[in-house]
Amino acid sequence: MKIALLSLFTLLTFSACRKTVVNQTVNQAFSAIYSIDTTKWVQGQNPDATVYFYTTLSVPELDAVINQNGGVEVYISFDNGTTYETLPEVVDGVAYGSLHTTGAVTIDLRGADGGTLHSAISTTILAKVVLIDAQPLD
Question: In the chain, which ranges are continuous DSSP H helix?
Fold first, then answer.
């Protein structure tokens, strides 16, 4: 009788166990490197007449979901990718910034002191754009 009760207890205990598999979606980060030639900089002018320069990179992977819920990081390199500076950054009196919208990233150059910038970069630089896919917190 004891063996029968022990067997019944064991059967009921282990039959109540279930394996549950949870599928998780892993959000990822993606990056691309763009070469910005000296001819790609466009001159702009603020309402107060200060001059700045900008270039717009086409980033079709920057979709509305990433634009709304994810993140965009921009880095620039003056030494062909050996080192990268995170934007925004000030280098040699020039303030580098970036902004993004669905499908594009714009990098701008302004005088760090708020004054007019007289010329754009005189050498080709690299820009690394990192897209971070994410879902909104509930």
Answer: 2-15, 64-69
pLDDT per residue as tens digits for the range 78-90: 999 999 999 999 9
Measured CA to CA, the distance from residue 71 to residue 53 in angstroms comes to 24
**Cis upstream peptide for 47 (omega within 30°):** no
Distance CA 70, CA 97 (A): 19
Q: Using alpha carbons, select from 98, 94, 135 the residue that is nearest to residue 117.
A: 94
Find, among 96, 53, 61, 64, the residue nearest to 78 by Cα. 96
Residue 41 near residue 135 (C-beta atoms within 8 A): no
* pLDDT tens-digit map of 53-112: 999 999 999 999 999 999 999 999 999 999 999 999 999 999 999 999 999 999 999 999
CB 134 within 8 A of CB 28: no
Question: Would you say the pTM of this structure is higher than 0.85?
Answer: no
